[in-house]
């Protein structure tokens, strides 16, 4: 009969406890970057922290999870902000002088040389159909009137009058039966920084 040598049970002095595992630094970093609204960074650090905690038996799982949650929320927020910036740029950036294909555009994007497929009814105008000037069109932008950046809102009638006074038809345009159409900033547009009026010529 053989016997296997045994090992004595470890002896701990009264009051002694084994040291606690250290906190995973990456988990702390994930939480901090998440609180700083660095969404993508917090998300990546949180995922890395979870893997390291599992492989190294370190602490900080709760911190890593919190970093992941904040990272997801922050990433969604950054994506929403980026989408708003892109859409705003698309609706405010000036058009080329003559577009290559028909497209819809906001009035604030129009520049001298643009041609419109048709003229909208009188009143506030927001979106128009811009076409290549070689195509059939109802009107074209021939000039613009710029109010001073420090100008005071003159009232809608005053704004309309100032822009209209800057629009003059040539003798050839008058003989052809063309008409002047003026678009002045509205009160809401003025409040948002619009200081440009447009002079259009509607073909006779």
Can you tell me about this structure?
Helix content is 40%, strand content 15%. It has six helices and six strands. The protein starts with 24 loop residues before the first helix and ends with a strand. It has a six-stranded antiparallel sheet, with helices on one face. With 204 residues, the chain is an alpha+beta fold.
Number of helices: 6
Biggest β-sheet, characterized?
Answer: 6 strands, antiparallel
The strands making up the biggest β-sheet line up spatially as 1-3-2-4-6-5
Given the helix and strand composition, which structural class is it? alpha+beta
Mean pLDDT: 84
Number of domains: 2
Distance between the termini: 120 Å
Number of E-type strands: 6
User: Beta-strand percentage?
Assistant: 15-25%
Helical content stands at: 25-40%
Shape call: rod-shaped
> What's the order of the H and E elements?
HHHEEEEHHEHE
Radius of gyration based on Cα positions:
34 Å
Low-pLDDT residue spans:
none
Give a brief rundown of this model.
This protein is α+β, with helices and mostly antiparallel strands.
Q: What descriptors fit this protein?
A:
single chain; 204 residues; alpha+beta; six-stranded antiparallel beta sheet; 40% helix; rod-shaped
Question: Helix and strand layout, with pairings?
Answer:
Blueprint: H1 25-35, H2 39-56, H3 61-92, E1 103-106, E2 115-116, E3 127-131, E4 139-146, H4 156-165, H5 171-175, E5 179-183, H6 187-191, E6 196-202
Antiparallel strand pairs: 1-3, 2-3, 2-4, 4-6, 5-6
